[in-house]
Amino acid sequence: MSASHTIDAIAAGVEAASRAPASNAGQISEQRRQSVRRAAEAPELVTIRNLKMYFPVTEGALLPRTVAHVKAVDDISFSIRKGETLGLVGESGCGKTTTGRCILQLEHATGGEIIYDGRNLIGLDRKSMLALRQKIQVIFQDPYSSLNPRMKIGDIIAEPMKVHRTEPDKAARIARVRELLRLCGLDPRFADRYPHEMSGGQRQRVGIARALSVRPEFIICDEAISALDVSIQAQIINLLEDLRDEFDLTYLFIAHDLSVVRHLCHRVAVMYLGKIVELAECDELYSDPLHPYTQALLAAVPVPDPEVERKRAHKIVKGEVPSPINPPSGCVFHPRCELANESCSRIVPQFRELKPDHWVACSLV
Ligand code: SF4
User: Fold this and answer.
1) CA 18, 300, 279: angle at the middle one, nearest 5?
2) What pLDDT does residue 19 have?
3) CA-based Rg of the chain, rounded to a whole angstrom?
């Protein structure tokens, strides 16, 4: 998504694409408040404790030896409550996609725990994991490359039902495919088309229908709207929200841009160089960001009104993201932080709850 995409553009698109008229704005915000309250009171479905994912860097072709590690995810902890949408946001390479892949067991974590509905996924045998994979589904960023171009849409959506044997009867599978296409806003006749005959937004709807086909509880949306136009992003966000409410789904919504998560997410976690630096309820994070990195991310989102935009103070994060092979000492953000003092390069900041349910990893706030 380009930098010109703004919170307001997405929000305006979401509102325009929603079915409620503008006069219902108060009702919508009351619904949102209730949804946030419900999510805050729900039990935890996913609990991540001290998760680490270090990738070895090897040297030597014949006898490779490990000379360093890429610390893609470095000791992070968070939870996702049942029915909640947690946004996981940060720049490319911060470890958010790796976190999602660890939950899906596509990567074998170096350490920590991933508790799903009371069971630790790390070390779970293949058979048990396959059974759980029915409940944990994923929607990928690129709807084109994630769909097999040689398969018809109907077969693509039916495939998980065959793998997990949730719909052994062929006629029932066909009926379910048609129902899923309708649910995702597509004509059931699209079942006979191929992916290249559809637009990007339609293909992403197919990706969502495929994820829903086995009646999951938890869906990881990995940059699920990043490759789409702003107006299509708004439609997909609305669709995901409707489906969450209808089927009591829980989402981990991974995005690199804070502007896209505001409408859908209940809470947002901000990641930087393998660590979570701030975690708070969505509106709280946008109104009172406490970590210098979150403040800079929010300040970098342009406002569409040129007058307001001219008067805004712009905080630019200086420098490049350091290498995760050799991350900075102390606070990993210190080489780029404008508030850093001498202690920041020595002391690793604790992840502390500074306000109710608002967690920050910065020693100076
Ligand atoms: Fe900046 Fe220091 Fe806070 Fe890190 S601990 S975010 S370097 S002020």
Assistant:
1) 70
2) 47
3) 21
Stated pTM of the model: 0.87
Contact at 8 Å (CB) between 85 and 93? no
The amino acid present at 278, given as its one-letter code, is E
pLDDT at 153 over 80: yes
| Atom of ligand 1 lying closest to residue 347 CA | 5
Question: What's the CATH class of domain 7-56+68-135+216-360?
Answer: alpha beta
Report the separation in Å between the CA atom of 349 and the middle of ligand 1, taken as the mean of its atom positions.
Answer: 8
Q: What is the 3-state secondary structure (H, E, C) of 167-192?
A: CCCHHHHHHHHHHHHHHCCCCHHHHH
- Supply the pLDDT for residue 69: 93
Residue among 271, 317, 334, 359 to mutate when testing ligand 1 (max atoms within 8 A of CB)? 334
Q: Report which of 69, 47, 53 is spatially closest to residue 108, judged by C-alpha positions.
A: 53
Q: Tens digit of pLDDT for each residue in 250-305? A: 999 999 888 888 889 999 999 999 999 999 999 999 999 999 999 998 887 767 66
- What's the one-letter identity of residue 272? Y
User: What digits encode the pLDDT tens for the residues 123-146?
Assistant: 888 888 888 999 999 998 877 788
Q: Ligand 1 pocket by C-beta < 6 Å: which residues?
A: 291-292, 331, 333-334, 337, 339-340, 344, 349, 362-364
Parse the chain into domains and list their residue ranges: 7-56+68-135+216-360
**Residue bearing tokens 């902890």:** 77
